[in-house]
Automatic annotation (TrEMBL):
InterPro entries in UniProt: ASHA1/2-like_C, START-like_dom_sf
Superkingdom of origin organism: Bacteria
Annotated SUPFAM superfamilies: Bet v1-like
Species this chain originates from: Mycolicibacterium duvalii
Protein name: Activator of HSP90 ATPase
Domain Activator of Hsp90 ATPase homologue 1/2-like C-terminal: 23-158
Family listed: Belongs to the AHA1 family.
Pfam family of the protein (one): AHSA1
Coiled coil regions, renumbered to chain: none
């Protein structure tokens, strides 16, 4: 399993997931840069993602929805704030309504994904920072750790195919 560590800190308002992959940094970058590959790993297996818009450039936007087993759709968005290809990108990560507009009733995070060469492969570090301890606690209760971990763990299947 790629995910090697998950931690959250209510004092710093962060959730950090670390994963290691047997693929070079450029290959891991491609997964996030290509909307069709991103669809294969962004949602957990029970809630596959469909990417609607994909502009991984500063000021760009990525919108998507995940479809649950019952057919219900759950929207989300990224507002991309910085890109340093192929080693990192930063974005506001939030929930969206049915029209893929930000849903202010649910927490958004400032996220930074970094990819670094490590032991012949890549170590990925995913850090999300929330506005308050309550916002972090809410996403923890919503199952973000389990959902994100199972989604990230799908990368192994993608890099070998």
């Amino acid at each position: 399993m790629p995910v090697t560590d998950v931690s959250h800190d209510l004092d710093t308002l962060t959730l950090t997931i670390t994963a290691e992959f047997a693929a070079p940094v450029q290959r891991i970058w491609q997964i996030y840069a290509d909307p069709r590959q991103l669809e294969k790993i962004w949602g957990p297996p029970t809630h596959p993602a469909t990417v609607v818009d994909h502009d991984l450039t500063p000021g760009g936007r990525v919108t998507y929805y995940m479809t649950g087993p019952d057919g219900e759709k759950y929207g989300g968005y990224w507002e991309v704030t910085a890109v340093d290809e192929p080693t990192s990108f930063s974005f506001v990560d939030g929930f969206a309504d049915a029209d893929l507009n930000p849903d202010p009733s649910l927490p958004a995070a400032r996220s930074v994904f970094t990819f670094a060469a490590h032991d012949g492969g890549t170590r990925a570090t995913y850090v999300s920072t929330y506005a308050s301890a309550e916002a972090l606690q809410k996403v923890l209760e919503m199952g973000v750790v389990e959902g994100a971990s199972t989604a990230i763990n799908q990368i192994d299947d993608l890099i070998v195919s």
